[in-house]
Amino acid sequence: MGENGKLGYGRYRVLMVSDFFYPNFGGVENHIYYLSQCLLQRGHKVVVATHAYGRRSGVRYMTNGLKVYYIPRLPFIQQNVLPTLSGSLPIIRTILVREGITLVHGHQAFSTLCHESLLHARTMGLRVVFTDHSLYGFADLGSIHMNKVLQFTLADVHQAICVSHTSKENTVLRSGLNPEKVFVIPNAVDTAMFRPDPEESPSIKEEIIIVVISRLVYRKGADLLVEVIPEVCRLYPEVRFIVGGDGPKRVRLEEMREKHGLQDRVDMLGAVPHADVRSVLVRGHIFLNSSLTEAFCIAILEAASCGLLTVSTRVGGVPEVLPNDMIVLAPPVPAEMVVAIGHAIQLLPQVDPFSMHNRMINLYSWMDVAKRTEVVYENALSSEDDDLLLRLSRYENCLDERLNLCDEMLFESRCFDCTCQCTLGMFYLDMYMTPRFLQYSRLKYQHLV
Hints:
With 449 residues, this protein is an alpha/beta fold. The strands form three sheets. It has an eight-stranded mixed β-sheet with strand order 3-4-2-1-7-8-9-10, with helices on both faces. Strands 13-12-11-14-15-16 form a six-stranded parallel β-sheet, with helices on both faces. It has a two-stranded antiparallel sheet with strand order 5-6. It folds into two domains: 3-188 and 368-443, Glycogen Phosphorylase B (Rossmann fold); 198-364, 3-Layer(aba) Sandwich (Rossmann fold), CATH 3.40.50.2000. The longest helix has 28 residues, at 405-432. A hairpin with a 5-residue loop joins strand 3 (58-61) and strand 4 (67-71). 43% of the residues are buried. Helix content is 41%, strand content 16%. The protein has 15 helices and 16 strands. Helix 6 runs parallel beside helix 7 (250-260).
């Protein structure tokens, strides 16, 4: 084992942790998979830990030998496991020690498994990095609770990554994290997989197809689609919509299609596996993104790589994704979105799908994301470590100044109990549950007490 947790020169042992991974599909899942594959190609050891998906439990191997631990814990809401704090300690510790992990990389603020794993990794003296993939509010009850949890988790991380500058600003405001510890590394797209195929789409002189691929939920602007689609169909008889995705708002779209008699102009595909996304995109000319909040939209990159002109709401980090001549932006207002779609239809004769694809090759690369992530890992591994008392002092700094003395003492005692519980539990596991074949001298395993 080399210095700073490297295995030989320039190699790291990394554990990617999140509740969101394949066979579930989405932006976070794609990010973890492609980043892991590129890090493997660059000679690092990468292991993924997530919760079990149905009968997919235990250890599985993916492309290039990517090892995935599907921990036998079932999700209870929105693919998140039930928070237990110390309940995941034995199995997370076993993975960390067995694989010789030196750095834990957690993904997504909504992931319970991510928060618990980062706490256990810090208790074991490992370096931790956190990536935030979403924007979150400040006013509603759920946001207040989530931001407080994030504040305590990020109080003890070495480095953080955000996927856009807007996301960085949002994360810093929510967590109180030092901005100098936050890096901006955007997502990317597999341009070899998402290639144009003009033969699959009809001529724009005959028919114009607008593609929507998204989870049909409020945050993704499904209600906005209900208002926009009928008006666009009324103004432009040559336009047809293809809607891919599923969710609680699908019923509203089905009702809209029935109400306006658009069954022959709006195709509802349901959930589209990621492997089939390209075959849907190449059938269209325009990609429509109606999100109400978005840190960084990978779907826009996939559509642009397939040669589609994008129309999107001007929210979050979306304006940072593409150059102005490749995307038409509008406020998340139905009338403004209809105008933007009309402008995009006028621009279609000037769009060259293969030229757009070649530009995407130069703009975005997962290998470039991996190289920039290595810099973050190096900074985390070279940072100074600290002991249990310093960790507790950082947790204390997360207290709200408006708390009275009684609440503050109660909170401090619970924080101390949780941290000490994990530390004492770690000592017990070291003494009685450590496999004999593990060599701590090689792993440089240490405690922070």
